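Q: Here's a chain of 99 amino acids. Please give me its 3D structure as tokens.
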Amino acid sequence: MITGKAEVRCPFCEKTGVIAFYKPPHKEPSSSRISGKSVTIYIMKDESYHIQSDCPHCGIKRKDIQDYYDGKYKKKISHEERIAMLKKRGLPLVLGSKK
């Protein structure tokens, strides 16, 4: 893929149509300076996606898609599901209570 605007796959509905700016893996120069001398080293950067639109098919928000591509997405859990999960683990739900 070439750097620039591209249509990428929505990770939730598996359909193409989300507009994103794609940056392929590349080397980026970084300079280190000390008195009388400077050294340039090249650091390898990973590919990145900058999502620019919501999914036109399923309506998922841009932020959720961006979090998925960055590896930070967490599925939202309702309060009832969280309580059931804690009960299943055997944790007390009220402070000072006995099981």
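Q: Can you summarize the key feature?
A: Helices lie at 62-70, 79-89.
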